[in-house]
Amino acid sequence: MIASRNSDLIRGTIVILAALLTCMMAALTPASAQGDRSVAQGPEPYVYQVEQLANGGSSSSLDLETPRGLIESFMAAGEEGRWNDAAAALDFTDLTDADREETTAQLYDLMHRSVQIDWAGLSDRPDAVDTQSSAENPMAGEPRRSIAISSLATDGRPYSIRIARVQAPGGEPVWVFSRQTVANVSGLYEAYGPTQFEQSLPPALREQAFWTLAWWEVIALPLILLIGAFAAALTYKAIEKWRSKLDEDTKAYGVLEAVHLPATLLAFAGTFALVRATFFRLSGPVHDILDPLQLILIIAAIIGIMLSVIEALFDFATSRRTEELEAPENNSDRNFYTKMSAIRRIVTAIILLAGAGFVLVASNVSDTLGFSIMASAGVLGLVLVFAARKVLGDIMSSVQIAFAQTARIGDAVYFDNQWCYVEKIGFTHLRLRTWDERRVIAPVSAFTSESFENWTKQDPSLMVHVEVRLDNRADIEAIRPVFCEFVANDDDVLDPEDAVVEVVSQDAKAMVVRFMARAADPKRGWAMQCRLREFMLAKIAGMDAAASNEPTPAYLSREREVRMDEAT
């Protein structure tokens, strides 16, 4: 009796737990699975169950069994204008009062003009199993009941064009355009459909010419290019005329000169985009190619204008202060302009990266034909990146020079056996001005990997010297007072006490005497060096002329000949 009661208690407990579990599962079941649209549980699990399939027309002429069959038969019916038949491919559940043929025609126009259909990616199986993707794709080999064909953006948000596999009670599963896609057709058509200008064209011009282009598009595209080119030419001439009325030394002239070409490019791209948006809406593939290119040109022109203005203003500021920057006492100014040059290059890099990022985000290039074209050039991209390693290294070197200040704008440097002033530190090259007003363009890598002399890094004063070859019999003690006379009277000699006369080398023909004195800076030092050479040569020549008899001292070196007696 006790065992029987225990077994009854256990069975009752199991029944209660089973009932509770059933209630909990029912409560957790999503509303979408309980209402008019649920996921089938049975021989066709990957299908949406609907109470009634609200598609229009007769589906006898359409292949709704597979995703590819749906798109192919829908596009074929639309091309022939059989809108009543084509309406069978649309789920009108959310548009009960809509003009079904009009909505069908609008969807066909969107698919034909604005959507790039990936035919290779459309499965020709009822379960839409993707047999082409790699194993890394999570959907590879998996049945699907909903597929996104494309995405069109309007009102600042993207709208998907999707097809779904649905099944009505007692019917076979079919693929149709989803009810949400059909509900969005009207708004998308308003944004992507033909303009009023296009609708006013004769029907013959709206017929298809080749590819997906209508005859009016074949005619309109060159016209748009000509209108853009005309606007660019007007802009170029206007800026040129404006510049001719300004003085070349003004900031406005420099800025106009810098933005001349970028502004011309902006006029072309902006006019091209404006005419397209106002009068012409080109069809799908052409639209997918032109949109990214148009956006790239506009962004490139805007970035070009910004960078040109920054470059022009900086060059104007530094070029007008060249003499002041080269002054020995202006270390602080040289430091300031060199740091500003580095900041300018960093800002330039940030603007370029921001522009590239904006183009990628705004153009939605990954969903367009343009991305396929870009991706097909992947090998070329790798080659270009490999080739750009040197350029990227030079850019980093220029920033390193600017912040480490090994060479500042206005510094006097001795590079490649030439005395120069640093005029500009660019991304890949330094512009140097020689003492005779020539310009030397040197790679920045030469200033980071090789040694060079910076004569104004710490103390701009430097010792200048003149070397003269004298006869070995020259009286050096007689020459020293002459040199002291020069250093005592020359204004560019910084400290006469530092001036020295030294015999630095000697051979059988002559000895080399060096005359050294300190100058305040390289520019004064060069002038003083030239005067010192002239003064000492003139004095020594006079002393040599006075010593006419051998073996009295001779000062200037002489060539000696040894004659052998013929008898010997």
UniProtKB/TrEMBL annotation:
Annotated spans, Disordered: 125-144, 549-568
Keywords for the protein's UniProt record, in alphabetical order: Membrane, Signal, Transmembrane, Transmembrane helix
Coiled-coil boundaries: none
Ranges of residues in domain Mechanosensitive ion channel MscS: 391-457
Position of the signal peptide: 1-33
Highest rank taxon of the organism: Bacteria
Transmembrane domains' residue ranges: 213-234, 255-275, 295-314, 342-363, 369-388
Biased composition (Basic and acidic residues): 557-568
InterPro entries named among the record's database cross-references: LSM_dom_sf, MscS_beta-dom_sf, MscS_channel_2nd
Compartment list: Membrane
Pfam family, one: MS_channel_2nd
PANTHER family, A to Z: INNER MEMBRANE PROTEIN (PTHR30566:SF25), YNAI-RELATED MECHANOSENSITIVE ION CHANNEL (PTHR30566)
Protein name, per record: Mechanosensitive ion channel
Organism per entry: Aurantiacibacter sediminis
Upper classification of the organism: Bacteria, Pseudomonadati, Pseudomonadota, Alphaproteobacteria, Sphingomonadales
